[in-house]
UniProtKB/TrEMBL annotation, chain A:
GO biological process, one term: transmembrane transport
Organism: Saccharopolyspora antimicrobica
Protein name: Carbohydrate ABC transporter membrane protein 2 (CUT1 family)
Membership in a protein family: Belongs to the binding-protein-dependent transport system permease family.
Residues annotated as domain ABC transmembrane type-1: 68-260
Coiled coil: none
UniProt keyword Coiled coil present: no
Stored Pfam families: BPD_transp_1
InterPro entries reported for this sequence: BP-dep_ABC_trans_perm, MetI-like, MetI-like_sf
Listed PANTHER family: INNER MEMBRANE ABC TRANSPORTER PERMEASE PROTEIN YCJP (PTHR32243:SF18), MALTOSE TRANSPORT SYSTEM PERMEASE-RELATED (PTHR32243)
Any single GO CC term annotated in Swiss-Prot or TrEMBL for this entry: plasma membrane
TrEMBL record, chain B:
Membrane topology category: Multi-pass membrane protein
Name of the protein: Carbohydrate ABC transporter membrane protein 1 (CUT1 family)
Residue ranges of domain ABC transmembrane type-1 in the record: 72-285
Main location per the UniProt record: membrane
GO annotation, biological process: transmembrane transport
Length: 275, 299
């Protein structure tokens, strides 16, 4: 009986790995199959021949490169804005106890509960008033606002781990609060800032709903919207290039998350336990 | 009693918080308030908005809209199934990973991938898996002698379960990693003591592991519930609510009402109902947990 436990455990683990990994393998494999093979009824995981031209075809589609560029710009600018805005506030959130912290934490939690679908209607009206629907500037503003709660939460966790004594030592030497922040606290937060920035980048890069609602002209589409429009194209889907485009779209997020995985675990833990 | 020092300190705090406060007020809190207000108007999504306050008319109309209630029912089935299955699957995987098997590193990396991928890519990938023409799932089922010609996402009876499986695939990893971190915080001697007392694996799980994990389970279940209820991209790309509305989760329903039918006020009323449902379900769940904790302590 006891001897059977390990093999059973490995069998279970194999089943999990298959469930998690197989769809990915299938996508990657589809991205290097010829269209003849994709449309045939013979099904095999490994392609009979490797066809890299799906990738060049995907990239040849004007829309894909353009929308990847849009996604990149939106994600980079919103990430920079999020960090710039959240950093000072996260310091207050971590250090100033009492009403300010209560209000901040309450808002962070509440912002997780509300269906964005309710917020998006008036948001659309607000942005339309300023002529910012169907514009990347509008999308940047929206992404920045919606990434703020999580960024604040992550960053304040990192601030809390910086010993207050270091700051006190700084102010004893006569430095002002802002000098202390710039010279002592923020440099110590660098790893946390990098992690938060990567997280924000991925959130913006993957974001679908706001982009779908706000953007109307194809030249403004972000990558997720363009990919969706490829499958929307009534039956005439070129599966190979679509799979290739999907693989390309997933690469940045996967790379970042793999790099982040340790930090993410501790960040999520902090959220789960204290949240 | 505001001394100059206190005032200076307040100014500092204000200066540090202001950059966050402005975007939050303008793009998050104000739309929220306006969104609730819209629910009481007959606003339409047109170039020149011109609308009247209609009081509770939208809600009265909504009460008779059986399609909306169907979508709410579908949304609750989707949310509860995905949340529960995520938890069960993630608990299994976390326990396996915590029992000292090899392949931990690989599993951990692989476990993060579904969560990191853009939902659109996830949906495209699973459309290929479920495909009725040359999809691997049907090929596998056919290979082992089961019917291998099911149109998973297009059939009335299989569409919702098929979409739920994708939801579990997406959400399981993060839950696994959180649970695993929780498992690793349980002191090993608790398990050893239980083992010395002759407790088997199941008994050790119910007596040691589960009680220690309960706070984490409560918070991730609440968060997963909210995220799953509000998730849009996955279902939208997989099925667009079809076939025949069988996967029309409420978020999608509201989106279509607002941006396809252009009934902004009516859609906002639906949004308000959704908020009430989420908050009610969460309150019931958290109250039950709280009661349970108290009786546990009293024992």
């Amino acid at each position: 009986m006891r001897l059977l436990i390990r093999p059973a455990q490995y069998a279970a683990l194999a089943a999990y790995l298959l469930f998690l990994g197989f769809p990915l393998l299938w996508l990657i494999s589809a991205s290097v199959k010829s269209s003849a093979e994709l449309n045939s009824l013979s099904v095999s995981l490994l392609p009979q021949q490797w066809h890299w031209e799906n990738y060049s075809q995907a990239l040849d589609r004007q829309g894909l490169v353009r929308s990847a560029w849009n996604s990149l710009v939106v994600a980079l600018v919103s990430t920079a804005l999020v960090i710039l805005i959240a950093l000072p506030a996260s310091y207050v959130l971590a250090r100033v106890k009492g009403k300010v912290r209560m209000a901040g934490v309450t808002w962070i939690l509440v912002s997780q509960v509300f269906p964005v679908v309710l917020v998006v209607l008036p948001l659309f009206l607000v942005l339309r008033t300023f002529g910012l629907t169907d514009s990347l500037v509008g999308l940047v503003l929206v992404h920045t606002t919606y990434m703020l709660p999580f960024a604040l939460w992550m960053l304040q966790g990192y601030v809390a781990s910086v010993p207050v004594e270091l700051e006190e030592a700084g102010s004893m030497d006569g430095a002002s609060r802002f000098t202390v922040l710039r010279a002592i606290v923020f440099p110590l937060l660098t790893p946390g800032i990098v992690a938060t920035a990567m997280f924000s980048f991925v959130a913006s890069w993957n974001e679908f709903f706001f982009a779908l609602v706000l953007l109307q002209s194809p030249e403004n589409y972000t990558l997720p919207i363009t990919l969706k429009m490829f499958i929307g194209g009534e039956g005439k889907v070129a599966l190979g290039p679509l799979a290739a485009g999907a693989v390309l779209a997933a690469i940045p997020s996967i790379v970042f998350f793999t790099l982040l995985r340790r930090r993410l675990t501790s960040g999520l833990m902090a959220g789960a336990v204290k949240g | 009693m505001t001394t100059p020092m206190v005032r200076a300190r307040r100014r500092e705090v204000a200066a540090l918080v202001m950059p966050s406060l402005i975007p939050i007020l303008v793009l998050s809190i104000a739309p929220l308030v306006v969104g609730i207000a819209l629910a009481f108007t007959d606003a339409r999504l047109v170039r020149k908005p011109d609308y009247d306050v209609v009081g509770l008319d939208n809600f009265a109309r909504l009460a008779g809209n059986s399609l909306f209630w169907d979508s709410l029912r579908i949304g609750l089935i989707w949310t509860v199934s995905v949340t529960l299955l995520q938890l069960v699957a993630a608990m299994g995987l976390a326990l396996l990973l915590n029992s000292g098997l090899r392949l931990q590193g690989l599993t951990r990396v692989l476990a993060l991938v579904p969560w990191a991928m853009p939902p659109v890519v996830v949906a495209i990938m699973w459309q290929m898996i479920y495909s009725a023409n040359g999809g691997p799932l049907n090929a596998f089922l056919g290979g082992i002698g089961l019917p291998g010609d099911i149109n998973w996402l297009g059939d009335f009876s299989t569409a919702l379960p098929a979409v739920i499986v994708v939801g579990v695939w997406v959400g399981m990893p993060q839950t696994t990693i959180t649970l695993l971190a929780g498992l690793q915080q349980i002191p090993a001697d608790l398990h050893e003591a239980a083992a010395v007392d002759g407790a088997g694996a199941w008994r050790r799980f119910t007596a040691v592991t589960w009680p220690s994990l309960r706070p984490i389970v409560t918070s991730i279940t609440s968060l997963n519930f909210i995220w799953n209820f509000n998730s849009f991209a996955l279902v939208y790309v997989l099925t667009e609510g079809g076939p025949g509305g069988r996967t029309m989760v409420p978020v999608l329903f509201v989106y279509l009402e607002a941006f396809k039918n252009r009934n902004l006020g009516y859609a906002a009323a639906m949004g308000v109902v959704l908020v009430i449902v989420i908050v009610a379900v969460l309150a019931l769940y958290l109250r039950a947990q709280f009661r349970h904790d108290r009786t546990e302590k009293a024992r």
